[in-house]
Every structure is written in structure tokens, then in C-alpha cells.
UniProtKB/TrEMBL annotation:
Residues 1-21 form the signal peptide. This is Tolloid-like protein 2. The gene is LOC109471403. It comes from Branchiostoma belcheri (Amphioxus). Gene3D superfamilies: Low-density Lipoprotein Receptor (4.10.400.10), Spermadhesin, CUB domain (2.60.120.290). Keywords: Disulfide bond, Membrane, Repeat, Signal, Transmembrane, Transmembrane helix. It comes from the Eukaryota. The chain crosses the membrane at residues 504-526. It holds the Pfam family Ldl_recept_a.
Length: 527
């Protein structure tokens, strides 16, 4: 009996919290809180309509709505319908919008009749909307939409979800999830910190006689949008005139979004191209081709208009003429190793926390290993928590993240974690993304730069002409098995245009989790 009472208490608490934070207020059953206070609306957009709309509103209505958004934003109100008893001074029935949350705030508009007013814009981040009706004549009421925009002196991005000072544009610090603050115009116009990159990303390294490396400008923070990069590498001959084989590998953090193109890698000689390959994604590793005598290795990349990841670092080494070069696996075998042909399958060699190469499961020894990034951890022991998240009992403090991309069920549910888990870097978090809608939904799980509190909840956005993308990230391991809903999480600090129905469904989802927990408590008491 006590357990049942606790269950209904949980139901009441969850539903009351939803009513206060919803972004839509089509309140057909009244427009006041039980304590008589104003309905509180938050988020990035929403709707409000009169009680019973589109049927006639009741007499003696007294409704109050306070819309509050983040600092640096203002509110825009657009009327879709208006049918309120007409009176010249709007003294009988009316809707009034005040420029702030208090009843003493300046009036922005007081409307009645059936003529739609012009859009109303606040000067700050809150408005108070009052609707009053008297005891007699009425109408269908009103229906309005509200949205937010940044204040005029601020820079707007993320569909107005983020507003920053103009001075924070082009400062080599990402403030906008859509990267609009660090777009290609920063480099093209030499704005702010980007003036330092006027020299571009061009290098011609000849007569290489030892190890070395090159990295893209601003590495490893993020790649400079719009910056074409081209590097040419040529080895120097040995003292006896013979040439070593030049081999290369992408080491450290690697991030080149395949949607923005690939790094083109070619080896050429005096007769033209000898071999070529490409590289993109979030995992580095060996360049699969090497440059032999008389050949040059060239790496070129022309990115999109927005930053596309960490960028990359290329580290090169030389395999002596009397050794066996196996660039596809990043190995160089000296004569004493006894290896005469490149192994067809080699174990995965990954970097440890100290950067030293570690190999396992092979009888081949004596090779020189090029470092790689992102540690793959096989045989991970997992336990399932009460919220169906997966916590890992083996591994370092860093987040261990299942990495996949595609439409298969394993990627969607995270069930394929197995040996494809990746240890994220200290400044990274595990991200899960849901791309598309309906029958065309794919998932992407990966290590990406750490997120703010806003991104710790499922947030969805749709850019013009692009698929809907929902994503969240976390610094723990629960992202591996998190299945996204395709709707904004109503518990997020700021909502992204959630409809009332979507918000209710999401809250009911949370309610079901709480109900299951209560049922478990009841069963434990029965036992």
C-alpha cells in the first residue's frame, strides 16, 4: 500500500513539472496554475492559445503566461488568429503583452477585435502575456506563436539557440554547435585570430633523412574552415646512393569529416602518378602507400566551409634500402627479422597513454612501428544499470566509446560494442547521433570534442535542405547504448522548438522509467 502511494506521488510530481516547463500552451482545460500564478514557458519557440480555442473562450477568463528565455535573447510574438470582443480601448476583453515578467513592465501591445497586429518584439529576455474576458460577449479567442532571436548587437547561431558577443567570432574558440562563429569567412577576410594563418597550409619537404611531422594549422583544436592544405614529401638518398622508402602515418588526434571530402594521398615520379589512396573519418593510422626512389608523396585536402574536426598530423619515417617496407601496416622489417614478405594480416597496433606502440597476437617481431591514435579495447566487461545504460568495469578513467556509423541495428542500439570500443582522449566525450527521419534513419557513435550541459540531452535540429540530426554526448559510458527518440529532450536546459505533444511523450518516457523503479521497490518488499 505504501509502495502504491509513492507511485502516484511520482506521477503527480512528473506531470506538474512538465506543465510548468512546456513550450506550447494550448490549454483547453484552463490557463492558470493551481496556485493562481502565471504559466511559465521556456525554450526556443512555442505556441499559446486562449482556453477552448478555436471554440468560444469562457467568460471571466484570467490567464497569465510568462515566457522566459536565455540572457542575450529577445522574444518575437506573431498572431495566427485573433477574435476577441471589440471595444475601442480594449477595456472589456483583451490580450496584453508586457515587456518583462512583472505586471509593472511597459506595455508592448493591448489587442482586441479581429485584426491581426504586427509582430511584437521584446527588448529583453522575458514577456508577460495577460488575457482577460468579462461576463458577457466573447469570441473564438487567439492563437499565437513565439520564437527567439539574439539581441541585435550579438552574433546569432544554432538557429538562435546560441548568442555570443561579436568579439567572440573568429577567435579560434568554438562557441556555436553549427560552427558559424568559426566559418570560412574568418580565414577569407583575415578576421580576428585568423590573420595569423595568411601563410596558408603549403609545405614542400625535400631531402628527408630522419623522422619528422607536419600538422594542420590550429591542430588539434579544429581544422581551419576553407583552408586548402598541400604537403609534398621526398626522401634523401643514403650515403651509398640508394634510397630508403618514405612511409607516413596519421598520428595523434585525427578528425576529417568524410562528408567534407577526403585527404588525397598520391605518390608520383617523373612519369606521373604511381599510386593513390584517400583518408577521412575519425581514426588515423598508416598511409597505405610509400614513396620509393625518385618518388614524391603528396597529401592534399580542400575542406568545406565549416570546420570538420581536429585536422590531422602526419609523421613520416624512413625504411632503409635493405629492409622490407610494409607501409600498409606501418612496419619496416630489418634483414635480421627474417620477414621476407609483408604479412597479409597484422594485429592492430594502437598508442598507449604514453604513446608507445603495443602489438599482440602475432609471431612477427623486430618491426619498427609507427604510432597511431585512439586505443581500441577488446574484451570489455559490461554491466547494465537500472536505466539500461552500459557501464564499463575495465579500462582507464577516460570514456570508452563504441564507434560505428550506419543503419544496422547494432549501431542503433549499441549492441555491437565488442572489440570496437575506442578510448576517447581526455578532452573528448562519447557522442551518439541520429540522422534522418522515418525509414531513413542512421546512427553515428564516436569520440568527439567534449560538450556543454546543453548537449548532454537529446537536441534535434534541421538545416535547410539537410536531414534532421539529433545528438547528445556524455563523459560517462551511457552513450554507447542510448537509443535516441528523434525529439528534443524536455529536460534540457533550453528546448529547440519542441511541440507540446513531443514534450508530453518524452516526459511520459521518463515517467515509465520512474514507474519501473517503483515497481521494483514494491516487489522487493513483497519478497
Amino acid at each position: 500500500m505504501q509502495g502504491g502511494g509513492f507511485f502516484f506521488l511520482v506521477v503527480g510530481l512528473v506531470l506538474s513539472r512538465h506543465a510548468e516547463g512546456q513550450t506550447s500552451a494550448n490549454l483547453n482545460q484552463g490557463c492558470q496554475r493551481e496556485d493562481g500564478g502565471s504559466m511559465i514557458l521556456r525554450g526556443l519557440s512555442g505556441t499559446i492559445s486562449s482556453p477552448g480555442y478555436p471554440t468560444m473562450y469562457p467568460p471571466n477568463s484570467a490567464c497569465a503566461y510568462v515566457i522566459t528565455v536565455d540572457e542575450g535573447k529577445r522574444i518575437i510574438i506573431v498572431f495566427n488568429a485573433l477574435d476577441i470582443e471589440q471595444q475601442s480601448a480594449c477595456s472589456y476583453d483583451y490580450l496584453q503583452v508586457r515587456d518583462g515578467a512583472e505586471t509593472t513592465a511597459d506595455s508592448l501591445a493591448k489587442v482586441c477585435g479581429n485584426t491581426l497586429p504586427d509582430p511584437i518584439t521584446s527588448t529583453g529576455n522575458s514577456v508577460l502575456i495577460n488575457f482577460r474576458s468579462d461576463t458577457s460577449v466573447g469570441g473564438e479567442g487567439f492563437d499565437l506563436e513565439w520564437s527567439v532571436e539574439c539581441l541585435p548587437d550579438l552574433f546569432s547561431c544554432d538557429y538562435a539557440a546560441t548568442c555570443i558577443e561579436q568579439s567572440r567570432k573568429c577567435d579560434l574558440v568554438q562557441d556555436c554547435d553549427d560552427w558559424a562563429d568559426e566559418g570560412e569567412e574568418c580565414l577569407a577576410q583575415g578576421l580576428g585570430a585568423y590573420a595569423a594563418f595568411s601563410a596558408g597550409c603549403q609545405s614542400d619537404v625535400q631531402n628527408i633523412a630522419d623522422f619528422g611531422n607536419l600538422s594542420t594549422p590550429n591542430y588539434p583544436d579544429f581544422y581551419i574552415a576553407g583552408m586548402d592544405c598541400s604537403w609534398s614529401l621526398t626522401a634523401a638518398p643514403e650515403s651509398d646512393g640508394r634510397y630508403p622508402v618514405l612511409m607516413a602515418s596519421f598520428t595523434g588526434d585525427f578528425g576529417v569529416a568524410c562528408s567534407s571530402g577526403s585527404i588525397q594521398i598520391r605518390t608520383t615520379d617523373s612519369n606521373g602518378q604511381v599510386a593513390s589512396t584517400t583518408k577521412c573519418g575519425e581514426r588515423g593510422g598508416p598511409v597505405e602507400i610509400g614513396a620509393e626512389e625518385g618518388q614524391t608523396m603528396t597529401l592534399t585536402f580542400s575542406p568545406s566551409s565549416q570546420p570538420i574536426g581536429h585536422g590531422y598530423m602526419v609523421e613520416w619515417s624512413l625504411c632503409p634500402p635493405d629492409s622490407l617496407a610494409c607501409p600498409e601496416i606501418g612496419e619496416c622489417f630489418p634483414p635480421e627479422s627474417g620477414v621476407t614478405t609483408c604479412p597479409s594480416s597484422m594485429p592492430t597496433t594502437q598508442a598507449t597513454a604514453t604513446g608507445a606502440g603495443v602489438s599482440s597476437g602475432s609471431g612477427v617481431t623486430g618491426g619498427t612501428t609507427l604510432r597511431r591514435s585512439s586505443t581500441v579495447r577488446p574484451n570489455i566487461v559490461t554491466t547494465t544499470a537500472s536505466d539500461n545504460s552500459t557501464m564499463f568495469t575495465e579500462g582507464p578513467d577516460n570514456t570508452v566509446c563504441y564507434s560505428c556509423e550506419g543503419t544496422d541495428r547494432q549501431c542503433m542500439t549499441g549492441n555491437g560494442i565488442g572489440g570496437t570500443a575506442m578510448e576517447c582522449q581526455e578532452d573528448e566525450a562519447c557522442w551518439v547521433e541520429r540522422i534522418g527521419e522515418g525509414q531513413n534513419v542512421s546512427y553515428r557513435r564516436s569520440c568527439q570534442p567534449s560538450c556543454n550541459a546543453y548537449r548532454a540531452y537529446e537536441i534535434c535540429m534541421t538545416a535547410d535542405g539537410q536531414d534532421k540530426v539529433c545528438k547528445l554526448c556524455c563523459t560517462e559510458d551511457r552513450c554507447n547504448t542510448h537509443v535516441l527518440t528523434g525529439h528534443n529532450d524536455p529536460r534540457a536546459p533550453a528546448l529547440s522548438g519542441n511541440s507540446g505533444a513531443e514534450g508530453i511523450l518524452a516526459s511520459l518516457g521518463l515517467l515509465s522509467v520512474l514507474a519501473l523503479a517503483v515497481c521494483a521497490d514494491i516487489l522487493s518488499l513483497i519478497d
